[in-house]
Amino acid sequence: MRDFVVRVVEKLHVDEGRDRVSVVQYSREPEANFYLNTYATKDEVLENVRGLRHKGGRPLNTGAALQYVKDRVLTESSGSRRLEGVPQILVLLSGGRSYDSVDAPASALRELGVKIYTIGTRYSDSRELQRISDEPSNALTVSDFSELPSVQEKLVDSVDSVVVRVTPTTPTVIVDHAAPKKDVVFLLDGSDYTRTAFLAMKDFVQRLVEKLNVMENRDRVSVVQYSRDAEAHFYLNTYTGKEETLDAVRALRHKGGRPLNTGAALQYVKDSAFSPSSGSRRQEGVPQILILLSGARSSDNVETPASSLKESGVLIFAIGTKNSSRDIERISSSLTHAQSVSDFSELPNVQQDVLASVNTAVLEATQISPTVWVDREIPRKDVVFVLDGSDGTKNMFPAVLDFVQRVVAKLNVGESKDRVSVVQYSRDAVAHFYLNSHSRKEDVLENVRNLRHKGGRPLNTGAALQYVRENVFTAPSGSRRLEGVPQMLILLSGGRSFDSVDAPAAALKELGVQIFPIGNRNSDSRELQRISNDPRNALSVSEFSDLPNVQQQLLSVVSTVVVEATPVTPTATGKNAFVCCVLFCTMPKDDVAVLVTDGKKNITFFLLSWTLGLNT
Question: Which residues form a coiled coil (predicted)?
């Protein structure tokens, strides 16, 4: 399989401005070995493909892998140029039948315009591969993967013909790729607490640096390691090229020592790393970024030096484990800039989130619009969390609350923006607070942190859904449904319902509520799919401690639904653009009213004489 990928890549024109390549390997769960924007030359891609090691694991979840590719790989932040009209090609090599459903994620990829080619062996399910691919002819089969060279030319020819066919002459949107420059300092916990985790931390830094545009007049990078005291391995002006920087990161050795003085390290970074003599360009208006990785609670005060850094304009992104979560929240610039993992081996799971947050913050700091040349208002939404508080979820409840906090941290909570409510249920349901109870994100988060497990049995999910419809998604409780604000329900259920869910779920859908259920291995997946508006919106984890793994997927789907449910007429910025809406009549001959707007509020009506043939 690896040799086959090498041969296909050799046929491509790999270059930053030409073809881009990514490789994902999967079994129970998928993992990106590298993304579309990780390597810009063919030699780099080939070297990394040759160095791939077999992942192992079971069962084979092809559906989850396809969903991962959609959410994490074929995205702009990972190097996809779909919005520029560049053809998106997925080549799947599968040696067995999938244990999960492939239909919904394959359909979602095709809806994005992704061309899917599948190659299987005699152990694969040929009908499954045909369902995944765009058309049956794109599903290829060999007796075993040693015969892959026999289909190589057919695949390459087919891909080339598709690229010619689907490449549009005019891109659908125009994106400004002029990324602002930035100064990035990594502050790494090198104490005795992270001895076994340091390789994972170092690998994380490498992956992020690979995504940066490191050069003298663009991005600059510094790395500081600390335990009792802090030490700079190199400063912002030490290296001017990406390869030099990566070599220095690869050469890092664990510092060791205790106690962990994060506060002193933050002060050191402010005084020494973010200084003009060390290469900081703060006085030139270049955004200053600090990315902290901490694996334990600090022995000294972190709030004063963190505040000092923020006051000087430094944007702090903090990543910690469960042992350092309190420090992380106090240090980071905002809750959206704080990430938590159970241990640092899970850092790849938050890599894209961190990178996206950094890019967004930099764009905001430099007042450059990250969108295309269309200005859209941020949609408002009413979000209700319905949490399983029955006896069966007692031990899992802290993980559930942590997940709710993470999702709320990503929302734009405000009286006229996003609103949040939380309901907990077992035999019966109770609202902890309503959509109009709190208008500040801090108040919502504080109340979520203070929630106590309800307890009780049996689990009546149907009754809970009915309760939410009658008591929460109502105008007196703060619902803005009648104003056209999207209504969202996020259900976390840890077991099968003892009552019927069909009627109350249908009633909510009739109101226009979008339902996103999340279950664990004790839940009934078919029940959750029936509750949701779309089976693809029903997510599942093995344990609720794995909820962070589906957080980004949930947020992506919620954002997509909000955009669909809240249409906003695009307004052109910086252009003399006109939007013409033609109102066709149903008579064979009639006048046609044309509404012309310059994108603001100046509206002109023209009446055109137009002959319409009904048969055309």
Answer: none
